[in-house]
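Work through this:
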Amino acid sequence: MKQFKYIGKRFQREDSLERAEGKTKFLADCKRLNMLYGKLILSEHAHADFQLDTEEALKVPGVYKILTYEDIPHVAYNSMEWFTGIQAQRDEYILNERARFVGDRIGLILAESKEACEKAWCKVKVQYQDLPVVADLQTAQEDRILVRGKTNLAYEKNIGYGDLANAEAEADFIVEDRGSTPRTHHLAIEPHIAMAEVDDFGNLVVYSPGQVVFAAQMQLSRILHLPYARIRVIKCNMGGSFGGKQQPLLELTAGVAAWLTQRPVQIYMNRRESMIGTFTRNGTEARVATAVRKDGKILGRKVDTCFDGGAYDTNNTSIVNAYAKKLFRLYRIPAQEFHGRAYYTDKTPGGACRAYGGPQNHAITEVNIEPCYPGHRHGSL
């Protein structure tokens, strides 16, 4: 091991002591002179038109302004566009004119203190006019209720190699299984938060504990029509992410609010808001059929999976493709086919989460490949 620089060596993180002693500064600990705090008004209904009554909320001492869709630049974006080379369906906005899931952003309170934000939030009245809801993948596939356009199908992918028909013909058994994986939230210790300010030279500076500073810069450049050179995104200490902070969200809200008000703005979320108003791992429903010989050799496999993409396009393309490529790595299978479909639903938008598609596909395929599993049956997919 002596010839290696790092392997076999013991190292101590430079900031480990201050973290252990609780001295590490996170974004919630940071303040700026003349700073406004921001609290989002999140929808309590899954799909609805709404009207905000902010008259009493605006009377709360310290409340600066309450922003709605009409006050924000109407520039659509897709939070999963990480760099300019990605072309995705852009259907997200900083604030929305219609609620499309429980937790959707329908307003933003700006105040001189968190206390004023919280008091104002309690006084905001929202009148909802409920619309039909796509609550599950079965409803989404039927297209009786539409979240987007003429169909709820957001993305479809077929990929494969080898001769699956020949593999099935030569097989002694076709082992089939169906299964599903739920949506899950990342539950990082640090709830979502971001801060932004305009510096003395008129540049927008954004502070983010997220994973994608350049994506935030790119999205803000498009939304505010500012050149990249006038936007700086600074990476702060992160209190956990697990993929949950791989898409810019509050960074964009804080950046736009700071630019509009020309004051520092810190947007924060509590635990509940972070869970319902950000992103989750995509839920899936899958069918797997594996062609095997009596001696245990795998000859071929077909996987058919539907993805719950949520209310906005976000990562529909990314999750289907990431899921697909991970199916082809673990076992040496002579022939394999994958059919994936992502659908819009009135749920929290999907996003990156720990291994990105791997837990969903292997949870079902490993059940299928275990020869002693009692749920096995013979047939064809």
User: Anything to note?
Assistant: The longest helix spans residues 213-224. The chain has nine helices and 15 strands. The radius of gyration is 24 Å. Residues 372-381 have pLDDT under 50 and may be disordered.
